[in-house]
Amino acid sequence: MIVIGSDHAAADLRHIVMKYLEEKQLPYIDCGTDESPSDYPVIAKAACAKIQSGEAVRGILLCGTGIGMILAANKMKGIRAAVCSEPYSARFTRLHNDANVLCMGARVVGSGLAAEILDAFLFTDFEGGRHQRRVDMITAIEEGNAAF
């Protein structure tokens, strides 16, 4: 299950992404919103809570630049969010960082590029191996017990 959310600045892109997910037959939970104005931290918190609870395994968060969403999402335990504006970074944030939330900016990427980024993020698996040690280090920082 994928969770998706946007603020008002990215509501149009959220609808495009939901259509993409439907075409790929990927189930999703919509955390909104179409309300204007809306606050991205509220949406990020609601969406990431679905990942924390196990209701969803990955998330897609959208705002004007993607930056507000990534800042809010990465404050939540267990969330590894990355803002991506091209497919290469989206692929490697999955391969090497096991990112579970993709953030994109509606004022930065168009619908065609967003689909390419989504393909890279959603259909790339974590490579593990030497990268697992680094993900574990990130988790240790998050939990306040990093010994390095």
Beta-sheet strand percentage?
5-15%
Number of domains: 1
Q: Give the overall pLDDT as a whole number.
A: 97
CATH topology: Ribose 5-phosphate Isomerase B, Chain: A
Physical arrangement of strands within the biggest beta sheet: 2-1-3-5-4
Largest sheet: 5 strands, parallel
Count of individual helical segments: 6
Order of helices and strands: EHEHEHEHEHH
Q: Please identify, by name, the CATH architecture.
A: 3-Layer(aba) Sandwich
Give an account of the 3D structure.
With 148 residues, the protein is α/β, with parallel strands linked by helices. It has a single domain (2-143), classed as Ribose 5-phosphate Isomerase B, Chain: A (3-Layer(aba) Sandwich), CATH 3.40.1400.10. The protein is 46% helix and 15% strand. A five-stranded parallel β-sheet has the order 2-1-3-5-4, with helices on both faces. The protein is globular. The termini are far apart. The relative contact order is 0.16.
SSE order and pairing:
Layout: E1 2-6, H1 11-23, E2 28-30, H2 40-52, E3 58-63, H3 67-73, E4 81-83, H4 87-95, E5 101-105, H5 111-122, H6 130-143
Parallel strand pairs: 1-2, 1-3, 3-5, 4-5
